[in-house]
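Researcher: Re-running this chain for the archive, since the previous output was lost when a drive failed. Same request as before.
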Amino acid sequence: MRRFFLCTLIVSLFVPVFAQTRHPFTFEDMMKLKRVGEPEVSPDGKWVLFSAVDVDLDANTESPHIWIVPTAGGQERIIADQDADRPRWAPDGRRFAFISNKEGGSQVWVADFDSTAGTVTGMHRLTSIATEAEGELWSPDDKSILFVSNVYPECPDEVCNARKLEEAAKSKVKAMIFTRLLFRHLHAYAEGKRSHIFAIPVDACVGAADPGCPVGAARDLTPGDYDAPVFSFGQDEYAFSPDGQEICYTSNHEKNEAASTNNDLWIVPVKVGADASFAQVMAQTKNITAGNPASDSTPLYSPDGRYIAYRTQQRPGYESDRFRLTLYDRKTGEKKNLIEDFDRWVGTFVWAPDSKAIYFTAEDKGESPVYGVFLETSNIVSRIVSFAGYDDSPGVTRDGKSLVFTHESVTAPAEIYRADMADGNVNRGAPGTQQGNPTLDDKVAVDLLTGIAPLTHLNEVVLSQVSVSALESFWFTGAHGDKVEGFLVKPPNFDAGKKYPVKFLLKGGPQIAAGEYWSYAGNLELLAANGYVVITINFHGSTGYGQKFIDSVTGDWGGAPFEDEMKGLDYAEKTYLFIDKDRECAIGSSYGGFMANWVLGHTDRFKCIVSHHSVFNAESFWGTTDELWYPDWDFKGTPYDDHATYRKWSPHQYARNFKTPTLVIHGQLDYRADVSQSFQLFTTLQMLGVPSKMLYFPDEAQYPQRPQNSQLFYKTVNDWVDLWTKK
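Model: Regenerated structure tokens:
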């Protein structure tokens, strides 16, 4: 649940400087921005590959392309002009793999690369699998590639899968039969298929006259009626050992996956026989985290092969427990938590080439810097990258002298940056480190770096023409007497002598954070652009303030968070005299949509409300959502075991208080908060005679992905707010 709503309020800080007249940021400007993906550093350290998505608003399409830029700095350029995404270098640097939909759906392709010239000399389609391929990963010896495909678990081979797909496509009966939960997830039905990891040879399949590997060339390394790997939004859930002899992957073998967070790490030999039965494969497969009933995920082998690093949680059934960084010793089987006293969530991470350090991201007070932990001084954490913003997907050059990562902030989307290490590596235990139980208030770590510089500038031209405002932080005393952080964005051409209406954004999650993040779904700059002050609060339950703060939302959905929201807005109204408190509209998505509905029943201070893919009836939400561990934990049980908690925090119980004009928005394909929630809300508003409107997307999930649908979303929201606050 939490990770699916990361897009709810995410924004950024880098402001390009160009001496020219700027105009307020528009939706059309946002669609011109290129959406930069994670960086991939070449084995020789000379190049960085990355994908970038182009949006064509008129054609209503999004197209990814692969770009390249010198690691030392220079002009970035497209290197693969066809529909291409997720580039991954071969270990020898002479080729890279990527995913393309150019032919036969999503398939793995391989490009030949000239490192001297930095050019592609040929492209070949590797896979032709009917169930399509994604998530490619090279073996350390360059001879094979892993990929993931959603297959029918009862099928022993590609022929069977292709036949079942064809039968389903031709059948006039589209009914499905379910025998277990999690039959649908996020925005799609499982249709009886499972994600499996396949290995496919490269040299035997790629050639000028060969359109791809023949049927049967790919070997299923994770057969059975399980998702292996499990779904993930971030780092890969599988990895090769450095010697190429085994893979480690994440899988959940619980009977009821919808109510279990017990992901485990499994290892299996890569050379398991192509004709091996399920029983034979499982006989060679080992669960290395069976002792932990909570989640273990995102395995990554150390370059020297001694360890597997991974993220682990301790409380079963709680997806928002703290993500710790753990080492598994492959020789002894010993497990060690590297940073037990570091009270933040570990995000994406990467090993240093010498296997002596791990660099990782972690949210902290509305930011997400890069940190480092060093095996020789375990439990000492250094903040490596210190400038404000959201960093992700760190990579390291092979010589260990530079970090490469994406960086975004409220005023600009992600670009790729390079940070150079002082003395060729990070100083262990240097000044600016945080030891024991760090407060994370110390952000002085510049001695660890010789410089930070952007490698890409894909969006500089567009951003140089628009007026955007930096994110401003403020603190106030919220629920339980705790200090709570809020954020504010001013409109373009701001005049402190004027009064401005307010768009009060109710953050989603609840276990995520607002802050220095960029978003295409709830963009703060775009919402402020037509003359509004935008305010949002990191209420109790938000990440980046310690696990106790996160845990406080459990069983208290409408309690402390609502108190924080109201006290934060009270503080802003008293502190910022340019706020017109008589012209405020509350806007919420996901959990923020729940909060919008809660506000609707508990205060009349707003001129209007926007409730987007919300929770309206907590009891029916439980019965229609996909991941049951989420409400089971946050509402402390099931509706039939604990009616009190569900009914206490269910907005529909307070419908008699509804008076505020409300815009309701939902997509049919949202299986996290089912569309029936908004249908119930809209029906209730109409029956009560409350001014209301509903925007319904039959072809979207949570946030509109199709460009023209997104355009309609923003226009409808802005028109509704203008209607009630600019009279």
